[in-house]
């Protein structure tokens, strides 16, 4: 059975999300809604859908998502029953009507291959439900690190709503608690798959919304996104380097250096940067990077 978890906070597009679930041609899923102490009460809307959706709704007394989004996901997940698979769906994202049916159509093969991470094709939509991207499809079977590199090279996109995870793996490993949960979806794909294979269902679409209201589309949180990016790259290079080839390591090092330069006043970044480069014998890279940065600083001083 499939559990669909919605960490709820915004009412604006929530009915569209619920309607997409009500439209599913296969109703073999249970819905769990965790209200993050939202000021926008969804109960009238939920009353409207109670006859067509099997859901469990819980309103929490305190808001957690504002400071630790992953913690909100975790407490929403606590209500899940004995379902073997789970999806965390944004309260403004929607599913094509055949998403659940497509999942079950491929489930036997997914089980045979011992897959833990499943994803769907995606299309980005705006606040008016208009499609603003092409349909993003993927190889049916893809190594998670290959996907990460494709993502970094701009060849694809990713958001948490498009994934289905084996619940037992999520419970064993847990989501990485990064600021704003930025890059937490990619971390989950890598870790929950064991840095191995992702199974893609390209004949069903998850619609990811860019509206100006969600974290992805906002520009007032760039400092937090910067910290999350640094932590994500650093974590992979420090703790998961055995899963990376030399090209992948170099890609991550370049992204780490850029993130560091964007926030070079952060003393903690300096400490971690040095701690990573010296023990891993990146002496040449370290000296070259520091030299270039020093030249840049001196140039600004002399201007």
Report the CATH topology name of the largest domain: Spore Coat Polysaccharide Biosynthesis Protein SpsA, Chain A
CATH architecture of the largest domain: Alpha-Beta Complex
Domain count: the total is 2
Tell me the major beta sheet: 9 strands, mixed
- Give the uncertain stretches in residue-range form: none
Defining key terms:
303 residues, nine-stranded mixed β-sheet, alpha/beta
What can you see in these coordinates?
There is one protein chain. This protein is α/β, with parallel strands linked by helices and 303 residues long. It has two domains: 2-209, Spore Coat Polysaccharide Biosynthesis Protein SpsA, Chain A; 222-302, no CATH class. Helices cover 43% and strands 18% of the residues. The chain has eleven helices and nine strands. The N and C termini lie far apart (64 Å). The mean pLDDT is 89.
Give a topology summary.
Layout: E1 2-8, H1 14-22, E2 29-35, H2 43-49, E3 55-59, H3 69-77, E4 85-88, E5 94-95, H4 99-112, E6 117-125, E7 141-143, H5 144-152, E8 163-166, H6 167-173, H7 184-192, E9 197-209, H8 222-239, H9 246-262, H10 267-277, H11 283-302
Parallel strand pairs: 1-2, 1-4, 2-3, 6-9
Antiparallel strand pairs: 4-8, 5-9, 6-8, 7-9
